[in-house]
Design goal:
Layout lengths: L2 H17 L1 H27 L6 H12 L1 H6 L5 H13 L1 H16 L4 H6 L2 H5 L5 H39 L7 H26 L5 H8 L4 H11 L7 H25 L2 H6 L2
Helix pairs in contact: 1-9, 2-5, 2-6, 2-9, 5-9, 6-9, 6-10, 6-12, 9-10, 10-11, 10-13
Length: 271
């Protein structure tokens, strides 16, 4: 395999992405705002006294429905339980969604964007194999998503501890579950988004069409978030590890099908 050729494809794609302000700015601003704002919202709600009414009843119901959460929150007072439940458990699916969305956004531009810019023909005639071309496209979406996942984890760790310090009076974050989430699940989630999206994008005519089709990949994350809100499940350590394993298996299947079915001759007929 020609590693230099793969690196050239990655550098070229990343250059195109970051030169497009309409794409690059949301990729940076949205995760930063979400990961900074969420801890301070969790801190402000108890300070405003709202926890004494609706949130208290909701939190009690959630704890009663999920014995695992009840054990994890044992020893905390009511305000501390609200902060930990929100920052550690309820926002975990949001964190997983960030690298997935970054990968989707970049990957949808992988081939559909090349078609719109009329640069696909030149790319297809570069001296690379089909696998090198596909791998370059995959890495150009996965690496930025990985950077957002790990950079976002560090940022969220700092913000969560700063915002909750007056309530917790100690460093309480990250938990073991969140470390597994960042190291094991987030990279897999990014791989899930780009694996599906590159396959879709290679067949779609426009970026908009590719993004509309790829948006379905986000549905499982939405279901996870809804499951936690409704008290159907919670992100325990073992569940997070199992979820990561499942996503990696799906990633491997997508990669296998993508490599098997990817042919630049097919792309050439779609130009």
């Amino acid at each position: 395999m020609n590693g230099k050729a793969v690196q050239t494809i990655v550098r070229k794609d990343l250059k195109v992405v970051f030169q497009n302000k309409g794409v690059s700015i949301p990729l940076i601003v949205v995760p930063v705002i979400a990961l900074i704002a969420a801890p301070w919202v969790a801190r402000l709600v108890p300070m405003l006294g709202y926890l004494a009414t609706t949130d208290a009843a909701w939190l009690d119901n959630l704890i009663q429905r999920l014995p695992g959460v009840q054990a994890a929150l044992a020893g905390y007072d009511e305000v501390q339980m609200f902060v930990v439940a929100l920052l550690v458990y309820l926002l975990a699916p949001l964190y997983v969604a960030l690298p997935l969305m970054v990968a989707l956004t970049i990957a949808c531009d992988s081939f559909a964007g090349e078609k719109e810019r009329k640069t696909l023909e030149a790319l297809l005639y570069t001296p690379t194999t089909d696998w090198e071309l596909l791998l370059g496209k995959l890495l150009s979406a996965w690496l930025p998503a990985l950077g957002v996942a790990w950079g976002g984890f560090l940022l969220y760790t700092v913000m969560a501890n700063l915002a909750a310090w007056p309530v917790m009076d100690r460093l309480f974050f990250p938990t073991t579950m969140w470390v597994i989430l960042a190291v094991w699940v987030a990279p897999a989630a990014a791989g899930l988004g780009l694996g599906a999206m590159v396959l879709i994008s290679s067949r779609a005519r426009t970026v908009q069409e590719a993004y509309q089709l790829g948006g379905m990949v986000v549905l499982p994350i939405i279901l996870l978030f809804a499951g936690q809100i409704l008290g159907v499940m919670y992100f325990s350590t073992w569940l997070v590890a199992l979820l990561g394993l499942l996503i990696w298996v799906i990633d491997a299947a997508l990669l296998w099908f993508g490599r098997r079915g990817f042919r630049r001759s097919k792309l050439a007929t779609q130009m």
